[in-house]
Amino acid sequence: MVNHGLFHRSGTPGGPGADVAILPISGRASGSDQVIKASLLDAGETATELELLRTVASGLGVVWGQDELGAWAMVPNEPRSAFATSPEPLIELPHALYREDDNGARFLIACYATQAEAEAKAAELARGGHKQHYFVQPLGQNVGGSSCERVT
What we know:
Helix content: 10-25%
Structural class: alpha+beta
Radius of gyration: 19 Å
Mean pLDDT: 75
Number of helices: 2
Distance between the termini: 41 Å
Number of strands: 7
Strand order of the largest sheet: 6-5-7
Strand content: 25-35%
Low-confidence stretches: 1-8
Order of helices and strands: EEHEEEEHE
Largest sheet: 3 strands, antiparallel
Shape: elongated
């Protein structure tokens, strides 16, 4: 990329974002055994993909707009996510709730003290109308991730 010097751009960001539910997750990076911590953003059934993308960009500190020179975006060199979570490690929560996406990737969602609590949350998430599959297994079984965190 070539740096062409300093420019001043004006304009206002375009379009609305989406209200999102944020769920902390752990999963494996694509093509790797590395477990990453992330946030699953759910914009629901009524939001468009563009509205979700605007929300994600804004949450990462991206500012964008359009002026007489065209569309522009200012992207921080070191973005900080507004969606990041800092869950507490748990020791005594043996019932793990997982999500499996359309591609077969599995993600640890949360852990619960009882199987009934975990299954109730799985049923609640399944009612959201998404194609993902939610299931509960004992934490010791190696599915997706191996550590569990408190969802706050």
